[in-house]
Design brief:
The protein has 409 residues and is an alpha+beta fold. 44% of the residues lie in helices and 12% in strands. A hairpin with a 5-residue loop joins strand 1 and strand 2 (52-56). Helix 5 runs antiparallel to helix 7, helix 7 (150-160) packs across helix 8 (167-178) and helix 12 (254-267) packs across helix 14 (282-293). The chain is globular. The two termini are 29 Å apart.
Length: 409
């Protein structure tokens, strides 16, 4: 999705199709969201086939919809692409399950993403960061967006004990699942692409689950196989769909936060110079990069009861799309929201979501971004554009498929 470098131009809603993945890569969603926040904070769009959804664009409404599972359920699907279709993983996969079962599934996994496990993964992540930045040691053009895909695979490989040689194909399959309309991933139609991705990923994890059941270890797969929910162990199928969810969550967001933040730094070179001068600004750079890029662009929920939001009321059964990128530019919450500012204070972004489904890997994501920019400010004097970026074709992920750069060591 396009990431604005400055205040949006004046627009209306005429011709704006927020469901269309191509609109997010070729259009100007930030301009549309700015209009909606002011004039239509609760907006209903009906598709040609009769399906419809509401859009919320203000920060307060985004937090309300994501934060209250009693009013808005994720059990009918959490992605806009699933609009109007039942989610086969309801009640079995974290992202498609409401509390209290969601809590039962999530609590045992928390220890993998904090404390000793996170510390143990740090060296592996730092090695991956150095691999990503290796081309920066020499003059020449290289694609930072593509290389950034190595980062989440390093994390996933460490936490899930995946063979490193499987990283490239796993990264490609998760790309197919996250952006089936993108030309880099599309196979025939989007539906076919998604089906192929699911088949490959589920088959891959089914084999791993079968091999690891009954064995000992501290990785996420073995942990899923020893967990209990509703007083019983998870089935192999439940373990498989949650492996898929963990990998998709890592690969679909982290590389785009990295690439999008570098793009912002190229547009605001004084900000990068400030971070090079004062490394204590790196944590603020990470948080502002997350707000600015908002890589998980949208989440879907369904109303369970009548719920009043800014601009009106949604009824039980209505689909509600939460536009995270819009909430993170809300003028009511962020001073001068279209200014990229690594010194920003009180940064209440919701790039990792909000409420019970707050990203399980948020700490890992922050660690990965911090390590990347710590290494970058030490090794790269300057990032320069080497060609136009190509934005990912997706209404789910706000990301860059290509970011050609030149770097000065």
């Amino acid at each position: 999705m396009r990431i604005n470098a400055g205040p949006p131009r004046a627009v209306t809603l005429d011709g704006a199709d927020l469901f269309d993945p191509h609109f997010h890569s070729e259009g100007d969603p930030h301009a549309v969201w700015a209009y909606m926040r002011e004039h239509a904070p609760l907006h209903r769009q009906t598709l040609p086939d009769g399906r419809a959804f509401w859009s919320v664009t203000r920060h307060v409404d985004a937090c309300r919809v994501l934060g209250d599972h009693r009013e808005f359920t994720s059990a009918r699907g959490s992605l806009l692409a699933q609009l109007g279709t039942a989610d086969a993983a309801t009640g079995r996969m974290l992202v498609a399950t409401d509390p209290p079962r969601h809590t039962q599934l999530r609590r045992p996994l928390n220890r993998l993403f904090s404390g000793p496990a996170l510390h143990a993964a740090e060296n592996r992540i730092r090695r991956a960061v150095r691999t990503v930045l290796a081309p920066a040691a020499r003059e020449g053009r290289w694609d930072l967006a593509r290389r950034a895909g190595l980062l989440p695979m390093a994390v996933a490989s460490a936490l899930m004990d995946l063979p490193e040689e499987d990283g490239e194909r796993l990264l490609h399959w998760t790309g197919m699942a996250a952006a089936p309309e993108d030309p880099a991933y599309r196979v025939a139609g989007a539906g076919t692409t998604l089906a192929v991705a699911h088949h490959q990923l589920f088959a891959y994890f089914a084999e791993l689950v079968a091999r690891r059941r009954g064995t000992t270890g501290e990785d996420a797969i073995r942990l899923l196989l020893t967990m209990r929910a509703d007083d019983g162990p998870l089935s192999d199928e439940e373990a498989v769909v949650n492996c898929y969810s963990l990998l998709l969550g890592a690969n679909a967001t982290t590389p785009h936060a990295v690439a999008g933040t570098v793009l912002a730094l190229m547009e605001h070179p004084e900000q990068y110079a400030a971070a090079r001068e004062d490394r204590s600004l790196v944590p603020g750079l990470v948080e502002e990069g997350l707000r600015w890029t908002s890589p998980a662009s949208s989440f879907l929920r369904y109303a369970v009861v009548d719920a009043e939001l800014s601009g009106g009321v949604v009824r039980p059964g209505d689909a509600v799309a939460v536009w995270v990128g819009s909430a993170n530019r809300d003028e009511r919450v962020f001073t001068d929201p279209y200014r990229f500012d690594i010194r920003r204070t009180g940064n209440r972004h919701i790039a990792f979501g909000f409420g019970p489904h707050y990203c399980l890997g948020a700490a890992v994501g922050r660690l990965t971004l911090r390590l990347f920019f710590e290494e970058a400010v030490d090794t790269v004097e300057e990032f320069r554009s080497a060609g136009p970026p190509r934005h990912l074709v997706s209404n789910f992920i706000a990301g860059l498929a290509e970011l050609p750069v030149r770097t000065r060591p």
